[in-house]
Amino acid sequence: MNINQFKKFFYCFFILLLFINCSNDEDPIPENAVFEPQTELISLEGNQNQLEVHWKPVFIEKFKSYKVYRFDTYNNESFIPEGVVGLGELVFEATNNRTTSFIDTKVPYNSFVMYAVVTEYLNEEKNVIAVVSKNHLSFENKDLSFAITSVEKSADGSLKVTWDKDSNAGFESYKVYALSSPFLSHEDVMNDKNKLKSITIQNENSISDTAQYTDQIVYYAVSKVINGKTIWSKNLGLIDNPRSLKFRPGQTFKNPYVENEMIIINNEGEIVFYDINSLTSTKISTNGYIFFCSIGEYNGVKDLYVPSINGNVFLVDLKTHQIKKTINLKTDYNILTAIPINGHILFIEKHPYADIGGLFVYNVENDKVLNRNGSFGAASNAKLFYGKDNYFFILDSDGREYGSSSAIRRLNINGDQVTTDLLWNESVADSRLFALSEDKSFFVSTNFGFQSDVDYENFTEVTTKSYSSTLNLADAKITSDNRIYFAVPGEGRISVFEKNNFSSPVKEYKTNGGALFLEVFDKQIISLNQCPNTCILETTAK
């Protein structure tokens, strides 16, 4: 080979190498390639009319295809790629592993549109294996998406719900939904049976809800219709139900100094002052178990007497809602019940674990217990009620309709000497239920509502009849017109009787749940009802 032939050969070889190198440079492996089946989405760009999704290329043996899945919904919270694939639809498929994008020209009309990619390949047994991408990407159509911005309790006790105002030309309506019970999904709240209101005014983006709910939390959802398409709010609004007590009440009172205020006793150590109109409350703690309370008067001032553990009785100021004084009755026993009477405090104490204790008198002026001399017995459910002058009522067992002594007693104090007078006339009264009329002339008691008339001057107590023979009554209140309101939890109602009309109630009110306690105000009845998950305060117009 001469020099010219060599040059010609070398030139051809160089051109061939150059061609080969140029050919290899046309299809290099991308820098972002992955060498496992699971790809990763890189970007999602565009608008509500067109979206383009990009992912990393997969370089593996026996690659079969990419499958792109799309899912549209009202929010993008708590979603995973597997959810997009499982709930979504297949919108694109490519068999070339270098295809790493998809342009979607049919973007759904919804708040959020999500994409995920599945890589398919053949394993050694030639079975198709599908692997979902590490992530998913979401596009938010901000012209459609909207949120509930606040749920607040108003001064009148109603719940105000506010959401983002819509600005679309194709607006048709809003719909507001509410639910106060356990649920599984957003869809459960937005059931037609939970719809509160439909609104066709675009600028009206709030409502006031006066409904009375029966669970601890109230949930709200809102939808809107745009160009015939229903768009759901991307979140739920929620608020603690202001009518939920979150504890089982032990007693109730009307505050004699504060109109429209109810006092609710939580025996676990809390006193709640509840405004029945605004549904707001203030609370004080005793840091100890609370037994049977009473409102009593001493030196012309009415206070709440709160018996507790370790010999303590707390005097609560009904105007300031503060503990004004703590009286210790010189014992570490529990004080079950205490009432002011004739310038003294009459109380029952009991050992925390044994039926040891008794009925004693405390002299407020000299801070002395007068008659604690010897061992006595005390029942754990003993209760005292003040009558008038030096008369009181004692109820110390359930089922006293089978007892032999009266409920009424007469207290005699002479210096440090204390005696009590009673009657042996088989009083039909017990500690399950007791309500004394405003003029103190009669009371109803037991879970059947037996009525007994009282004559203080002649010291008599006579039982007439009962207002129920079959129903278990839970509470009773007697108004100034001698109407008797009974809580009937098993029947879900409040029954109202006129005095001495034992045959039938003059009025009945249905309750949500079983009424445990009630208080009667000028225009409404407030009942505390046991519902499946909580106790609620219900307002019923008279």
Summarize the structure.
The protein is mainly beta and 542 residues long. 6% of the residues lie in helices and 47% in strands.
Mind explaining what this structure looks like?
It is a single chain. With 542 residues, the chain is mainly beta. 6% of the residues lie in helices and 47% in strands. The protein is built from three helices and 44 strands. The strands form eleven sheets. Strands 3, 4, 6, 7 and 8 form a five-stranded antiparallel β-sheet that branches. Strands 11, 12, 14, 15 and 16 form a five-stranded antiparallel β-sheet that branches. Strands 25, 26, 27, 28 and 29 form a five-stranded antiparallel β-sheet that branches. A hairpin with a 2-residue loop joins strand 21 and strand 22. The chain starts with a helix and ends with a strand. The N terminus is likely disordered.
